[in-house]
Structure formats: structure tokens, C-alpha cells
Fold each of these.
Amino acid sequence: MRGIAKSIVLILLILAGTLAYFLYPPEPRAVTFPGGKRFAFSIVDDTDMATLERVKPLYELLHRYGFRTTKTVWVLESNEPSHPPNRGDTLQDPAYRAFILDLKKRGFEIALHGVRGGSSQRQDIIDGLKEFNGILGEYPKIHINHSLNRDNVYWGELRWSFAPFQWGYGLIGKHKFFGQDSASAHFWGDLVKQHVRYVNQFTYGDINLLTINPSMPYRLSDKPYVNYWFPTADGDNLDWFDELLRPENLDRLEREGGVCLVYTHMGAGSFNKDGGPHPRFEARLKDLASRNGWFAPASEILDYLREQPGWTPDLSFREEVRLEILFLWNAILRGLLPAPIHS
């Protein structure tokens, strides 16, 4: 029994040492922002379930407080509307299209969430990208994979680079994704490489993404169709958004000279109340706007970070594993902990 106990202790010590090695924080990166600003902030708004009625008041509020953020859109109508996250307005709707064009005119960034809510084959993707370009005058700089779309690039088990995580997800994951598979009817990896600059990979619970990934944005050698990946901070719904941007976190973001790109679903309903923006949403924006922050679209911030001294886009193996462990840990916490409770 003593021999077994010693073996268990030894294994635990080895595991602890290995975990400590991968989780040891990388060298911090100091960044100076335009105009003497103390930190950078944006929102990356996922278009799931977004309707003109819900999102227009929210963006009016963002504009009023001086924010320029990133909003994803769908070009084509959903072909799988029975899946709730696939529902929402698209650029096929004239009023919604006019609203999106007005946002772009005001300085907001329009990004892609796949060409539709639902899986698309290559010709539809080509047509959707051309229509995006025709309407907005440019191709999207940012793409965000959507839910169960089979045309997602490097999604599911291929979202991971560390082999044990990839294998583990492959065993439990029920869905496959083919956007990077040149033999698939859903392939468009070459178009991502040609037209899209940034793709979101993982989301974290930390407000300052530079502490998670100092070299953001980054490249991954095993995912060649994506030019650059970037992390986001978890503000999925109003409760998590409110929790992430509480005053003490904003104090820290400002103190550390950090970067926060909040990933959220502004059109899903939680940000609205009585036909307008929820008061808690406005309170967080008001606090943010009172601080010396650089409020710019996500791709503008990422472009700027690439130009700063000390940027190293190619992650080491250790950094890759660290990002994946931290993402897994955040996902576990989100699953185990109750949502924040607010009055």
C-alpha cells in the first residue's frame, strides 16, 4: 500500500509541476495607446438572434457614449431556422441593411459570423462574401465561427492544438466542422486566408487580455488558413458583461494598461428592458466612457498591436498549451458556477 501511495504522490507531483510549467505567466507586454489613452476597449457582438428592434437602441447608446465597436452580421437568410441561435435579421432585410450601413458610416466595424445562421456550401459562401463586399464596400476583416455551422474553420476538435485536448474533444464532441477541409463541400479556408485578417479562437474570464496573451494577435502553424487569431473576454450576456466590467475590474484594466475585447450577444435579449437598453448596460458604458480609454473597433486595436515593439506573432508550444488550459478552465468555471446575481 505504501508503494502505491508513493506512486500516486509522485504522479500528482509530476502533474502539478507540468501544470505549473505551462501556466507560468509569460513576460508582460507594455503597450502605449494613441492619444495618451490608458487602455483599449471594444465589443465583439455576436449576431445570434439579433433583430433591428433589439439592437438599434443599444447601438444608439454606444454611439452616444463615444464607442466604436465591432458587430457581426449574416448576409443570407438562415437555412436551418429550427436551431434558435440561427435566427435573426440579415442583410437581406432592407431596414436592417440600412441600419448596418449607418453603423459603418458612424465608425463601427461590420464583421462576419459566417454568411448565414446555418451551414453553407462553398458557392453560397462565395456569393455571400461577394454580397458583403458589394454592400459594405470591403470584405470583413474579422470572422467569428457560428454555433454548429459545418463551414466553421478549425472548430470542434480542430479548435485545439494540444494533442490530448484535441483527442479528448474528438471523443466527446458530437459535431464535425469542415471549413478548413479542401475535400469538403463546406470548404472556404482559402477565402478566409485571402479576405479575412482575424478570427476569434478562445474566450476568457479575465478583463485584461494582455495578461492572457501578451503577443495577441497570434498565428498557429497547424491552422494555416487563418492569418491571425485573437482572444476575447467573456461577456456572453448582460450578467456576465456586468460582472466583467465592474468598477474594480475597470480600475485594474486602466492601471495595467490593458486590452479588453468583450465577446457578447447584444441581440439575444438580455441587454434590453422595456423596449430600450437595460439600465445596467448603460451604467457600465457610462463608467467606461468616463475613463481615459481608447474605444475603437476590434480590428483597429489588433492592427495597432501588431505594429508595436515587442510583438511576436508565432506562439511557442508552451504559450499554445497555456492558452488552451486557461480556456478550458474558464469553460469549466462557467459551467459549474451560477451566473452572477444582480439587483
Amino acid sequence: MSMSVAPLAPGLHADPAPVTLHQVARAFTGRRGTHHVLTDITLHVAAGEVVALLGASGCGKSTLLRLVGGLDQPSAGEIRVDGHPVRGVESRTAMVFQDPRLLPWRTLAGNVAFGLPPAQKRTSGRADVRDWLEVVGLAEFAEHRPRQVSGGMAQRTALARALARRPGVLLLDEPFAALDALTRLRMQDLVDRVQRAAGTTVLLVTHDVDEALRLADRIVVLGPGQPHQRGSTVQLVTAVPGARPRDRHDPASAALRTELLDRLGVPSEGSRNP
């Protein structure tokens, strides 16, 4: 079931960075008025921690991720990565999207190289690309083009490209949503193993409660706030019981799974009307 993960070569380990959001809000103004997406988001993510963001579609999970990465700016509040305010595209972060977004004219190795820091020397860069492809199990496909590999292999390439930056924070925006069920499980195992080896701080957006329980140290649920508030806020922050690597069928997570599904509007069997 699981994908083998090669040991990380010296120098590939990350310098994990903490993330702090203080009273962050984001609203968009258009011809039809102002749409409030997020309001009063206050959250601290410790260095090396994996935090999953859950919530209904449209609640602002991906918007929050983009704010942390500096791809968008908050309407209010402040975001800090490694203690420094986020001002524009944040070089200490790297993002993996639902779509791999590979450059079709580049090989897999070329796509991973695209993620290297600009100042890195060519010789050491080639070695890092080779090492990261080895880590995600794609060394033998280095010269393939994206159209020649499967969706799962393309997403593994996107992960390697993001990690090649040695980011302090890895931002994952539903990176497995478009994959088939078996590949999705394998990718979850891969991300878990690579994160534990590299030590990178991770913010993961997902709709999948079981995925969050499998991968996260803590889970944050976003949703409507008080009646006077407009936009989503933090409804729940909870630790996931048990240390990683975590068994998907761990009974210690059963009660939390039921609570999370109830909050997301998916009542458990026991709470449904006969």
C-alpha cells in the first residue's frame, strides 16, 4: 500500500518555522457589495507542527492558506512566519495545489529544479533535484514529461518541487482531492513520512475528516461565527490523539471523528433520526 520513501540526504532537512495569525480578516469588494470570507482568525502553529484546516466549501480555507503564503493580503490583522510579518509572496513558504501545475515542456527533473532557491549553485541544485526525486520514488522517471506519467506521479513531482525550496512552512491545498482512492492513501503516507523526516511545518486544507485525523497533530475547524460576525472564524481547535504515524483505524480517534462530522453537518449514525 505505502510508497517507499528514501532517507533524506544531508542538507535536505527543513528549518521549520512557526506561523502566527492575529485577528486576521479578508473581505472582497465588488459591484454587488462586500463579501466577508474570514473574520477574527487568531491561530498559532508551532514550528514542525502539522495542522489541518477543515470546514464547508466556501468557508475560506484556501483563502487562509493563500494569505499565509503571501499570495493574497488580509483586509485586517497580521500574519507572521518565523516571527516576520508576511509582506508579499512569502519566500519561507511553498505551496502544493490540487492541480500539480507542472510545466508541460519540462521534464519531471526540470519541474523540481524550478522550485530551487534562485541563489543555489547549479551543481548542488542538480544533486538536490536528484535527491528529492529519489525521496518521492521518481528517480527513474526524471526525464519523463508530465504527460507521460500518472496523476499521482505528477502530484509527487509537485511535492518534490515544493520541498526543493526547503520551506519553513509547507502549504497543502487539497493536494490529493483529484486522485483516485488508492493513490490518495499512498500520497497521505508519503506526505506523513516526508514531513516527519524533513521536519517542515505543514498547513493542510482538506474536506476529508479521515485525512485530517491521519496526518495532523491538530485540527482547526472554520465556520460561521457569532450572529453579528460576517465571514468564517475559528470554531474549534483540537489535538488529535496518538502520535504519528497514526493508524487509520485507531479507536482513540473515533469520538473526535464523530464530533468533527457533526460540526461539518454530517451527523453520526447514532444522532440520525430513525
Amino acid sequence: MPHTEPSPPVTGRPSDREEREEREKWAGAVARLTAPGAPFAVVRGERGTPEYADGPRTLREFVETTWAYGDAVFLVDGERRWSYGEFFAAASALAVRLTERYGLRPGDRAVVGTRSLPEWQIAFWGAQLAGIVAVPLDGREDGDALGAVLDDCAPGVLLVDGEWLERAGEWAARRDGVRVVLFREGRAEGRLPGGAAVERYADFPAPDPWAAPPAVEPRPEDDSVILYGGGARGAVTTHLAQAGAALDARYRTAAAALARGAVPGLGPVPETPVAFPFSHPVALAAVYGAMAAGGSVVAAEAKGGGGVPYELEPTPVTEFRVTGPSGEPVPDRGPGRLWVRGQSAPRGHWRDPEATAEAFDGGWFRTGDLAVRHGGGVTVVGRAGAGGVNA
């Protein structure tokens, strides 16, 4: 089992007795949820790291269950509401188009480059339903930096809005076979430089609410998402890792309910405002949590993906440590390099075995983030260097 426990939510400045009581409640909730046979029981996986014993093993398995929420609201965009049924039909139709019309196959890459719009979720989950590796980009990359990222992941399709088309259009026009789907035009022209056509999502046939996604079955060990944290070096996570992140969200909700004396799953469905760009890991986790409960996602005033401090919470299958440059421990509140181990950790760097070997130490993955520890929690405060995920 992991050597760290999730910390209870901190509200105000409790006394020592109150804080101790809260920690005891939280520890009791953790024990009830993670014991053998419990909903979030933990086992050791093939790599020797903790994994959930039950639950979905791929993101496709996870998202397929949301179809049952039907008319419940999933995405909120101003006055526009997307139900789970509408969303799943749209994502399934896009997945079919990616495989049957564009000829993409499991393992190919799809860049998801839009603002935090409902279409972002359709693009991301359409890729997952097709077994295609999603590459979410947050808009910090531009010019040569964006070209380097695109060269590295070599996508077969760009799923973009008008702002992204302006950034990535010239790159796509210079490469045969790269398809472009334009979700919202903005100021972008209808054609790429050099005459390569752009297909507008608005021109696609209306999704059939009863049509199934492609008949592909990703394996837990297959790649699911590539995240670029700065520079042209991507961290790759598998379907098993992303499914673990989705279960983490369920676990935190259940543990919080038990700790306050409530029954998990019996409260009102959540409405989740997401202030980070959808491409950010914190936003992905928030969306997973909403989807697990049949709640709705509202894109708030999105913050930039880089340079914004954010909290990380240990879970039954995730461990963190913060060290100095040579691996030495650092005191609480002291900045250091963040390492992660567990089901949700990356499997390595995209097509870079040497960098992958350098990034792992006894099952621990060096994220390249700069973080501080405080009690049982971790706050990411920036990047450890300018050279990318493994800086």
C-alpha cells in the first residue's frame, strides 16, 4: 500500500483537536473504501506499483458508462447545454469519421487544440473511442515551439478551432495526409496555405443518437494521452493510467462524503466549474469526477496552463515525493523536484527511450515540475527547468 494518505479538505484554521478529529474521520473513510473487497481496494500491479483492483481499465470503458446518463446535462457553454446523450452521440460519430473516413488506426495521434469549448470534449473523447492517442495542447506553444511539438507527436489529424488553425495551419499544409477538422472558425480562413482543405465540423452530418462508436477495443497498456509540459518532449500515459485518474476522482468524492458522515452517491449531482484549460491535468481530473457522478461541466474564466500553482492529492494508487536536484529530501514548504509513482503515473517519454530511462528511478517518475510539500499534500508551483517534462 502507498506510504501516504490523502489529506482531508482544509477549511479555515481548525484547532489541533479539530484537525486531529478530521484526520481520524478521513483515515476511517480511507480504510472503509480501500479494504479488500471494498469499492476502491488496491492491489500491486505488474510493475509493483499500486493499482485499483476493480473498475474500468481503459478510458473507453469509462466513457461508455456515461451514455446511461441520457438527458442529464454534461456540458454548459453559455446558454447552450449538451446532454450526455448528445455528447456521446457526437463523440461516437467523430470516432467513426476518424477511423472510416480518415483511415486512422489505434495508436495514431490526434491533436486536440481548441479553447475550453464543448467541442474540446467531443474531440478528446472521440479520439478515445477510436483508440487514437489524444495530444491536448494548451495554447502556450506557438511558432517554432509548436512546430517542434507537432513534429514530435506526428499527428494524423488536427482537431482545432479558428485560433489554433492560425497557429498550426502552415505546419499541416506542408505535410501530406494530415487532416484538419475546424470546430469554430473565429478569424481563420477556410483553407490552409498551399490549398489544403479544412473540413468544418458544422458541415458534418448530424450524429445518430443510436449509432455505436467504432469496434475497437484499446488495451489497458495501450497509449491514451500525450501531455507536453513545455518543450518538445511529451509524457505518455496509458489507458490504465488515465482510467486510474478517473477512479481517483470517484474515490476522492466518496472519501469526502464518508468523512462528513454522508452516504456516497446519494447527494445532488455536482456542477463543476473548470477554471484551468481542458488540456491541463487538473481540468482532466475535474471532468473525470463530474462524469463519474453524472454531473455537469462549466468552463469558467480559464487560467493559463503554466505557472499557476495547483494542488495534488495523494490517493490509494498515487504517491508523491519532492527532492533536491540530486535526489536529496527537502523540508516541508521547501521547493523541489516532483516525482510520482502509481497507476496514474506516465509510462515514459514519447519515442525517447533514453529520456524515459533517465526519468525513472525505482518506479518513480520525475515529472519535471517544481513543487512543495505541506503535510500530506503537494502544490505544484512551476517547472523545474526550461527543457521540458524531464528538465
